[in-house]
Structure to design on (126 residues):
């Protein structure tokens, strides 16, 4: 049984997801968590506030946002995926890139959250 399914069954199908934007142009937090220390502190805070899942993104999906190259997304993510997984979170990676999704899965992510079918198709999810 997957880590996510176990969580949902234990919580009676309710889980709390915290969002960590590792983008300098984030519309929701204005780029507050681009630094490694700030990102880790935010992960710890969300977990202490009851988050079960941490959704981490390194590219903006707001309308009009420019695409972010894979290498830049990976650099922006830094240690966040590994940190969140090591701290006990179920990690969701928010990306349109199959390369970034695969890297995050290798680093401990359990869920791919993508607004693009490209990432899902490349990973065999569709």
């Amino acid at each position: 049984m997957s880590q996510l399914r176990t969580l949902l069954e234990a919580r009676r199908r309710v889980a709390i997801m915290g969002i960590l934007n590792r983008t300098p142009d984030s519309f929701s937090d204005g780029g507050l968590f681009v630094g490694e220390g700030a990102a880790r502190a935010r992960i710890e805070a969300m977990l202490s506030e009851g988050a079960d899942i941490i959704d981490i993104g390194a590219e903006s999906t707001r309308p009009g946002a420019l695409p972010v190259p894979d290498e830049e997304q990976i650099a922006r993510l830094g240690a966040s995926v590994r940190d969140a997984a090591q701290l006990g979170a179920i990690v969701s990676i928010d990306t349109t890139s199959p390369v970034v999704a695969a890297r995050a899965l290798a680093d401990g992510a359990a869920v791919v959250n993508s607004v693009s079918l490209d990432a899902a198709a490349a990973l065999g999810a569709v």
